[in-house]
Amino acid sequence: MMKHRFSRTLAMALFAGFISCAGTVKKDTPPKWISLFNGKDINDWIVKIHHHEVGDNFGNTFRVEDSIIKVRYDQYGDFNEQFGHLYYKQPFSHYHLKFEYRFVGKWCPTAPEYTLLNSGVMFHSQDPRTMPKEQDWPISIEMQLLAGLGNGQRRPTGNMCSPGTNVVYKGKLDETHCIESSSHTYEGEQWVRGELIVLGDSLITHIINGDTVLQYSKPQIGGGVVHDYNPAIKIDGKLLSEGYIALQSEGQPVDFRHIEIMDLTPAPAKK
Q: Which of 12, 108, 206, 209 could form a disulfide with 158 if both were Cys (CB 3.0 to 4.6 A apart)?
């Protein structure tokens, strides 16, 4: 995939092309960045951790210190597949999301091996309040975040993973669970900037440190990986035009900060 330097100009160009048939942007109210994280607490967020009811922040997994959302496991004992997610309180459809993350500390040794230096940002997710206590992953699209393992091997970040979903990639429905991006490999203990441009059920763009690293379209329900969900929620083939944004916990300590969103909802078409 061709890789190039990303800019806000390109973001708006992508958006302008998308809305050419749907409508026009209101010129009197240009989009603005809005912070999703106030730097003080997670009162605007909803916790859902596997084996626990929605709202139970087991082990103080998600905590705020030094204006950072920190994901930690020091109160866990056995990890016991207690995969967790921290959801912003409202769904979004068309938007530009940006955030910074870094991997820190020691991986929880009782977590699955694949979770080493691994986290993610979920989007177009189902409402966490629709998840049974024993559902492991939300039906969603994931911008997977990885760090290098210090072995000189390539390990890109900003990949796409699809718990209970599928996407159209390179012109065809791709049922692969994870699709690699073209990003550089970034070792842990450093801040990395991630961005998502999500245009409803149309084009989705992943950006890492200013580089466009992956694009695909038509996110939809389907595929496997998710277990013990409510069958009424998993309607295979249904396009996902909106959903919740969530930060992931799956065994590796990770920090998130500077989480901001720009609304790119197209204005109604002129009659």
A: 206
